[in-house]
Specification:
Length: 139
């Protein structure tokens, strides 16, 4: 697999986009709404909230908190984390989003890529002319 490119020049608006606001309006779950309300008071990487605190305030398990955060991120809601501060925060600032993508997301991609490469060597084609999964991914 090729080298992972570091995102340094991506442009993000510091103002919530219409689609993000629409995403917030579409969410019906009371727990999800509570998550967004709690996150609204943690809008800076210097003031993160831990998953344990989120569990206590929202009343859901750690797993459900993580799933809701993942769902929010996939909707474009920037609930970010910073492993050095051990918590989550909501931010539309370019610098915060860029730092999150570079430090947190790309490190996970790199780790998964290395694991994929190490394990994929064990996948042997049944037929010598058959392509293996590693060759498909690298195309």
């Amino acid at each position: 697999m090729g080298a992972v490119k570091i995102l340094t020049s991506m442009k993000f608006s510091s103002v919530p986009r219409k689609g993000l606001v629409m995403g917030l309006q579409e969410i019906k779950s009371e727990s999800y709404q509570k998550l967004l309300e709690v996150m609204a008071s943690h809008r800076d990487y210097k003031n993160p909230i831990s998953r344990q605190s989120l569990e206590e305030q929202i009343g859901l398990s750690d797993r459900n908190i993580r799933l809701m955060i993942r769902q929010a991120r996939r909707r474009g809601i920037p609930i970010l984390s910073d492993s050095s501060n051990y918590g989550y925060f909501l931010s539309y600032r370019d610098a915060d989003i860029s730092r999150f993508l570079n430090r947190e997301i790309l490190s996970k991609i790199k780790d998964l890529s290395e694991t994929f490469q190490a394990l994929s060597v064990h996948i042997k084609p049944v037929d010598p002319n058959q392509i293996n999964i590693f060759e498909v991914v690298n195309r």
